[in-house]
Amino acid sequence: MTDLEPLEPLDPFEPLFNPFAPGYTDNPYPSYSRLRAEEPVHEHPFGFWVLSRHDDVSALLRSGNSVDYRNADEGSAARLQADAMIEAAGPATGDTIDAYGMSMLDRDPPDHTRLRGLVAKVFTPRSVAALEPFITELVDASLDRLADAGTTDLIEAVAFPIPFAVISRMLGIPETDHARIRELSGLLVRTLEPIGDPDLLQEINRARLEMQDVVRELIGFKRANPGEDLLTALIAAEEDGDRLSDEELVAQVVLLYVAGHETTVNLIGNGTLALLRAPAELAKLRQSPELAANAVEEMLRYDSPVQQSRRIILDSYEVRGRAIPKGAFVIAGLASANRDEAYWGPDAGEFRVERSGARNHVAFGGGPHHCLGAALARLEARVAVERMAARFPGLELAGEPVWNGRINLRGLSELPVKVG
C-alpha cells in the first residue's frame, strides 16, 4: 500500500489527529494525508492546533511567532510538560543554575538572535566543509565493517557511528565519555515528544541534569586545556564584548551535541530505507553519483528526520480563514508539508532522486530558527549515501525495519541489510 491510496473512513469517535494510535509511528503519512484533505488547520480536542499544508507550515515558521514555552497558555499540555521538567530538577544548588530552556532552540529574539550569532561565529560553513576528509574516512571504515559482516543492522553499523563521531570530534569530547553520553542523548531527545508517563519524565530529567554536569566538566577541562575544537571556540566566542554565560554555554553545547547526531541518524537511516524500497531510484544514483546531493534533499523531503516543529501564537494568527488565538500551541507539520500534493504534485508520496525543487522542503524548519546544522547533516548524508551506493551494488533489505516509536524524531532503530 502506498501513502496515496484511498484511506479507510475515519472513526467518528476518534480524533482526526491521534499520534498515539496503533501503527502511527510506523507510518504517520496516512494521518497527515487526512489532515491535509479534511482539516488543514486543525484544532485538536486536547487544546493544540496542527497545520499540515506546505504553504501554511512555511508561513508559520517565518511568522515571528514564539518558540518559548513560557508564552503558551497556562494549563496547556505543552506548558505543563515544560513546567514539570523545571520542577523535577528541584532547587539550584551552589552556583549551579539549571540550563533548561536556555538553548537557542527555546528562545525568541532578541535572546535567540544573540545566542545564534555567537554560535554561528564558530559553527561556520568553512569549519563544516573542512570535515569532509574525516567524514569520508569514517564512512569508508563503517562500510568496511558492513562488507565484513555481510548482513547487519545499518543503523548500528553506519547511520549512528558517523554523525556521533563527527559531532564528538567537532566539540572535542574525549572518547572515554562516549558510551554514557550516547545513553543520555537517547533519553534527552524524548523531551521533544509528548510525555504522559511521570516515571519516564523523571528518568529524562535525571539524564538532562547529568548531561549538563558532563558538559560543565568538559567546559572546565577545555578552559584549562584549550584545543582546536568547537567547544574551545565557543568558550572564546565574543561579539561587541558579549559572551555566552556559563549556563548559556552549557545549553548550547547540549543542543549541538544531541541535535548534531540524533537527527542525522534518522536522515541516513530513513533515506537509505527509501532508496532500498525504490530500486530504480537507487540504480539512478549508482549510475550518476552527481545526483547524491539532490538525493539527500529528496530524503529530507520524503521522510523527514524531524517530523514537527512548534510555534506559540503571540497574537491572533489567521490561517485559511481561521483565527488561532494568542497563547495557542501550534504544531507545524514538517513531514506533512513535505508530502503535500498541492505543493509537490500528485507524486508527492513517491521517492525520486531527480526531483526538481526538492530543496524546497521544510525539513530543517524555516525563518530565524532554520537549523544551524543543516550543512553538516547534508554533508554527512551525501558522503554516506554516495559511497554506499557505489560500493554495494547488491545492497538490499535483509528483514523488516524497526521504527523507534517516536512521534517527532521518528526514525529507525534497526535497518537489517545485506550487501549481496
UniProtKB/TrEMBL annotation:
Domain of life the protein comes from? Bacteria
Mind telling me which Gene3D superfamilies this protein's record contains? Cytochrome P450
Xref: Pfam families: p450 (PF00067)
Q: Which UniProt keywords apply?
A: Heme, Iron, Metal-binding, Monooxygenase, Oxidoreductase
InterPro entries reported for this sequence: Cyt_P450, Cyt_P450_B, Cyt_P450_CS, Cyt_P450_sf
Q: Which family does it belong to?
A: Belongs to the cytochrome P450 family.
PANTHER family per UniProt = CYTOCHROME P450 YJIB-RELATED, P450, PUTATIVE (EUROFUNG)-RELATED
What name appears for this protein in its UniProt entry? Cytochrome P450
